[in-house]
Amino acid sequence: MSAADPQTAYEAKWAEYQSAMHQGAWRIGWGFFFVTVGLLPMMWFFIWMVGARNWERAVFHAPLLMWAAVPLNLVVVAALLFRLYRRNLELDALKRRYLAELRALKPASPAHEPEAPAGPDPDAFRDDH
Questions:
Q1: Of residues 97 and 105, which shows the higher confidence score?
Q2: CA gyration radius for the chain?
Q3: Which residues lie below 8 Å from residue 47, measured CB to CB, with a gap of 6+?
Q4: Using CB atoms within 10 A of its CB, is residue 17 exposed (0-12), middle (13-18) or buried (19+)?
Q5: Nearest 5 degrees, angle CA 83-CA 89-CA 93?
Q6: What is the rounded CA–CA span in Å between residue 86 and residue 76?
Q7: Mean pLDDT rounded to a whole number for the chain
Q8: For residue range 52-75, what is the model confidence (pLDDT) as tens digits?
Q9: Residue 36 and residue 91: Cα distance in Å, rounded?
Q10: Is the pLDDT assigned to residue 6 strictly greater than 90?
Q11: Predicted TM-score of the model (pTM)
């Protein structure tokens, strides 16, 4: 095993970590976008159901279907937000696993100072204490 092998393994794991974090962050970001933009069709449906000119009467005289649809939509939005929260926790667990693997792959010898990876050092921000 040459001296370059641990460094190569570290750089490969670092690239894998960056790719996983990038994909996870984009997945959560797009999920949040679709949850918030998904509210627009629901609002359009409520306007269509009540009638665009009937809003002044609908505030206190809402149709029965609207009273049933509001809690249903609230439950759907809460479930989607909980799903995003769960994905965020999964991404955080994946981050912690990768950081532990990266710390284990770092050469332990102080005489061998590896080159800095392309991105920031994963040990610079440690929230797993």
A1: 97
A2: 25
A3: 55
A4: buried
A5: 145
A6: 15
A7: 79
A8: 666 666 656 666 767 777 788 888
A9: 21
A10: no
A11: 0.63
Q: Encoding tokens for residue 128? A: 């797993």
Rounded to whole angstroms, what are the CA distances from 56 to 20, 64, 102?
50, 16, 61
Q: Copy the structure tokens of residue 69.
A: 């649809």
Single-letter amino acid code for the residue at 28: I
**Distance separating alpha carbons of residues 100 and 95, to the nearest angstrom:** 9
Alpha carbon distance 28, 115 (integer Å) = 32
Task: Match 């009467």 to its residue by tokens.
Answer: 57
What whole-number distance in Å separates Cα of residue 90 and Cα of residue 23?
13
Identify whether the C-beta of residue 65 lies closer than 8 Å to the C-beta of residue 49: yes
Using one digit for the tens of pLDDT, what is the confidence trace for 98-119?
999 988 888 653 434 556 667 7
| Torsion angle of C-alpha atoms 102, 105, 111, 117, degrees rounded to 10 | -40
* Distance (Å, whole) CA 114 – CA 116: 6
d(C-alpha 18, C-alpha 89), whole Å: 17
Residue 56 half-sphere exposure toward CB, CA atoms < 13 A: 1
